[in-house]
Structure formats: C-alpha cells, structure tokens
Fold this sequence. Notes:
- The complex is a heterodimer.
- Chain A is an all-beta fold.
- Chain A is 2% helix and 38% strand.
- The two termini of chain A are 37 Å apart.
- The model of chain A has no long low-confidence stretch (mean pLDDT 93).
- The longest helix of chain B has 11 residues, at 27-37.
- The N and C termini of chain B lie far apart (40 Å).
- The chains are: A mainly beta, B alpha+beta.
Amino acid sequence: MAKARVNAKKSGKSPRPRKTERNLILVATRKGAWIYRGDASRQKWRADGPHFLGQIINHLVLDPRDGKTLLAAASTGHLGPTLFRSTDMGKSWKESPQPPAFKKKEGGRSVKHTFWLTPAHVNEPNVWYAGTSPQGLFRSEDGGVTWNEFSGLNDDPQYREWMGTEQDGTPDGPKLHSIIIDPRDPKHLYFAMSGGGVHETTDGGKNWKPLIEGMEVVGGFDPKTVTFHDPHCVRLCPSNPDRLYQQNHCGIYRLDRPAKVWQRIGKAMPAKIGDVGFPMVVHPRDDKSAWVLPMDGQTVWPRTAINGQPAIYGTVTAGKSWKRLDAGLPKGQAWWTVKRQAFAADRGTPVGLYFGTTSGELWASRNEGKSWSNIARHLPEIYAVESADIG
Amino acid sequence: MRVKVLIASPLRPYTGADEVEADGDNLGALLNDLDARYPGIRFRMIDEQDRVRRHMRIFINGEPVKDLAKSIRAGDEIAIVQALSGG
C-alpha cells in the first residue's frame, strides 16, 4: 500500500462552522456519515453531510486531544476496508495509506472492516487504537495515518482460539470493540470481543488476561469458556476509572476494580423488560449514573424495541434500581433498535444523551433522558453515534 | 507490458476514469502498478493475504482470474468489476 490516496468527496458543500456551534454529534451510517453541529443550548442542530455517500461507515470519532482530527472507518459492500482522516473537522478527507490489516501469512486472516476507533491516552497524543472484524487489535502512532497490529494478540494461539473463526461469529462478522484506556495509566487497557469476552492488560499489551468472572453465557454453555462470552458494550466511568459498566448478550453488569467479578445489575430491571441490549453509556461526572436501551432478545433475536415501544432505562444508583425514560419517544409501532456504538453522552450540565436507530432516526435528550426529541429522520441505518464538545 | 484495464465504478474515485492503462507481466505486478498510479486501489479489491476480495471479480479477456501469478500478454484486456447484486 502506498502514499497519498483518494481524497474522499462529500456530497454538497460543507457548511462553515459557526462560532455559536459548541457541540457535535458524529453519525456513522450504512450509507455514509453526517456531522450534526449544535449550538450551546443543544436545541438547534445543523446537518453537515453526507460524507462518503454510499460507503459503510462503522465509526466516526473526533480526537478530543486536538479537537480537530476526525477518523472514519469505511468499507462498502464490495470493496475492502479503509480509513479516512480529516484534520479540518471534515472539510476534507485523506485516505490512510496503511489501514488496519493482518500480516500476510499462510492461512492468514483479512480485515473485513474496522469496527471501533479509540484515541489513546492524553499523554500519547498521536496514538489511536482500532478494533476490527474479524477480531483484531491495531494501533497507530501517527494520528491514524498508518496502522500496525498491536501487541501480538492477533496471532496469539490462545486468543485465536477464544476469537473463534468467522464461522463462529455473528452474520455481520465477529468484532473487537470497547477499547478502553485507563485515564490514569496508558499501559492499562481493556477491550471486548463479540464473541470472546472482556480482556485487560496492565503492561501496555505485553500480557492480556480475560476478565469474565461473574458474566453469564447462554444457557447450557460453560461460563468458564472464554469464547462463549459476548460482551456487547463496555464503558469506563471517567469520574471513577475503577468502575466499569457492561451491556452483555446475557445481562447488564458492573465491575468495581480491583475486584474481578462482574455483578449482574440488570437483575434489578423490570422482569417484563429484561436486561438484553447492545449499547450502554455512562455519566461523565457521576459514576452511579448510566443508561441502557433494552431490546427484544427472544427466540430468533428480533433486536427491536420491546413491544415496539422504545425506552431508555437509566440508573442513578449504580444499577441498584432503574427508571424508564421514554417521554417524547414513540408510544408504539416503533420497531427499531440501537446498535452498540450508536448511543452517546456529552459533557454538558445536565448531560445530553444521543442515540441513532436502525431505522435512521437521531434522537436527543438535553436532560439526562427525562425527555427526548428527534433531531433527524430518514437517514440510513445508523451504526454509530459519538458526541463531541468543541466549545 | 502495458494493457488496458476496465475499472469498476466504485473504484473510479481512485482513477477518475472507467478505463486506464497499467503495466505488468502478471496480474499481481499489474495490480501493484495500478496501486502505484492510484494509491490505495489495490487493497480495496485484493486483501492482505493476496486474495481477490469476496465480491470483486477480475477478468482477463473475459476469463475470471483469481491467481495473481496469471501471466499477462500484449493486447490482453483486463476488467475489474464488482459482483452484481440486487436489493
């Protein structure tokens, strides 16, 4: 792979940022990406897009360390994966000359798409991590321009066994996601795999250990077998880096380090709702507050809002109790759901929450979920939503 | 060996044209030359294990080819297309 690549074009003229705009919602969809620019009140939002019309964008992330670098993980139904980078907030994009790819070897794997992007520690300003499908962990040390396999994990025989083959994965491919960096220590990382469990390193990736105790698996299987674990989304509390929350295929969990046993806090959810879902977000300043969006996980996994009545459930007690938060959301016949990357929180007061649906709707709450309003409809299927403060 | 290469529409943002020329004595060399001229194009149709991607097809004079060692001769016509699909 070589030097400069295509400069991706955006459909339509890129709106010039306005001084009053303080918030961004970064929306990655099955058919391109959009940037919604909001004023300080978070009431008015202006659409900037589509970027990369027709390309599958699995994740669009702003680097909070410089406030201007955007990375977009792209592929199409036919073409192989790539990665685009902008250093001017999406006015222009350049393709990575070396996107995440496995080493060439006999029987080697190939990256189908980059699924997850995480900027590294604040003290490592040009470092990013990427998770792929099939499961692979990659690192860039030049701001996302070039990527290499990270830590030997991708070829580790034990990890390859836990990852399983593509045949073992979900229809859209097994994924490595939820790459988390401890804000106190750049060598302390977590990641999760669907399937393949949650894992941790404390030495910068030299050694990894599973962190699955307490997590349940589908009935009839052995929870000691790492490969059976299917964490959907793991989040670390910025206000308390020792606290992790997790939405799993089999429940909602909390882990307070240094403990190593996850606690199933989803048991406090209403029985008729259950605790199956994909996304989970945490409060930026309160480690007792978090939100989930339960879905129908019966029989053939409809993965829709339960009874067609979507609702966020929030806790302010670290999962001891949950409250239904559906004011403003459709009261019935709404059969969408929200993917694991498509639910985000901002850092405002009160916290703003944003989610994008599989039916292409973008919803927002300016009051920590108490009420919801629609920002956009008729977008393509939304794969990821991120919030960024540019104030 | 310089030959004509027909470019699938999703790859035209790289080439800016539906037909270009490239050099190579075999398919692998030709794709490397194409990538040197249009950086990034190769990885979108050939994966890191040198396999033609699942939904991409490459034809030499109308014959489907997956082997990058396949020889190319003067006058050959190369077509890179994506698999047809519906829905």
